[in-house]
Amino acid sequence: MTEGRNYREAAESFGGVAEEYDRGRPGYPDELFDALERLWGRSLKGARVLDVGAGTGIATRLLAARGAEVVAVEPSAGMADRFLASSPTLPLVRGTGDDLPFHDHSADLVTYAQAFHWTYPERSVPEAIRVLRPGGAIAAWWNVYDETVPWVRARGERMAAALPERYHGYGGIGRHTSHFAPAGLAVERAVLHWERRVTVEHVLTDLTSRSYLASLAPEERAPVLAAEREAMLAEFPDGVVVEPFAVDLTVAVTRH
């Protein structure tokens, strides 16, 4: 759960930046899904998957490409509209992880791509367990900017200075998934490193979709992005950025 600022305001802000989210956010490497299958102990092909907090469908499309029978679950009207525009052949249900609109024992896997921290774990974990079949699993993962890289760390420092009440960094993912083990789940974790090559403008599009900027009014957001554009072009004068990520994956398998 997001802390330190208005959770509802932050969560609802994504609908207004759905286009930027879909265009700017990074995808996920194939190795992530290889690791998910390894930690779960079964293939995604043919598995019934509920992709909760699916957003614009970035992870949903990749799960479907691996052969999963995936249904997206998304609360935001703006994000859902963008999902349906970009993924018209994939099913989507409006709902939240805290109250899944599915029958008991109706899924093999419940996934949260960049989304578990927008749930209340005391509600979402029992809900996920309820809809899972025997041997089913919960998988939560995040693309985390690798702040061991100096320019990434410097960008985080700029965001913290510009938005002290909103920006709280990218770390601390493990505290969210600590709720799985007490629920009687067998928990495994993996961290994978990868990178993407994009333009400075692409980086700014991605930043626009982050909740700490998306929840600002456009006139408040503009000077922050302008200052970041100037700083990024000073760091990367050719306008090309290699962004380093660590994908933090937790897989929790039911014992029943």
What does this structure look like?
The chain has 256 residues and is of the alpha/beta class. It has a domain at 7-146 and 169-196 and 245-253: Vaccinia Virus protein VP39 (Rossmann fold, 3-Layer(aba) Sandwich), CATH 3.40.50.150. It is built from 11 helices and 7 strands. The chain has helices at residues 7-12, 18-24, 30-40, 58-65, 77-86, 121-131, 150-162, 174-177, 200-208, 211-214, 218-235; strands spanning 48-52, 69-73, 92-93, 107-113, 132-145, 186-199, 240-253. The chain has a 7-stranded mixed sheet with strand order 3-2-1-4-5-7-6. Strand 4, helix 6 and strand 5 form a beta-alpha-beta unit. Helix 9 (200-208) runs antiparallel to helix 11 (218-235). It is globular. The two termini are 27 Å apart.
| CATH-derived topology of the domain at 7-146 and 169-196 and 245-253 | Rossmann fold
Beta-strand percentage range: 15-25%
Classified by CATH, the class of the domain at 7-146 and 169-196 and 245-253 is Alpha Beta
**How large, in whole angstroms, is the Cα Rg?**
18 Å
Mean pLDDT comes to 91
Main sheet: strand order: 3-2-1-4-5-7-6
Helix/strand order: HHHEHEHEEHEHHEHHHE
Question: How helical, in percent, are the residues?
Answer: 25-40%
Number of strands: 7
Largest sheet: 7 strands, mixed
Architecture (CATH level 2) name of the domain at 7-146 and 169-196 and 245-253: 3-Layer(aba) Sandwich
Shape: globular
What is the CATH superfamily label of the domain at 7-146 and 169-196 and 245-253? Vaccinia Virus protein VP39
DSSP helical segment count: 11
Flag low-confidence runs: 1-6
Q: Give the class from helix and strand content and strand pairing.
A: alpha/beta
The rounded distance between the terminal residues' Cα atoms is 27 Å
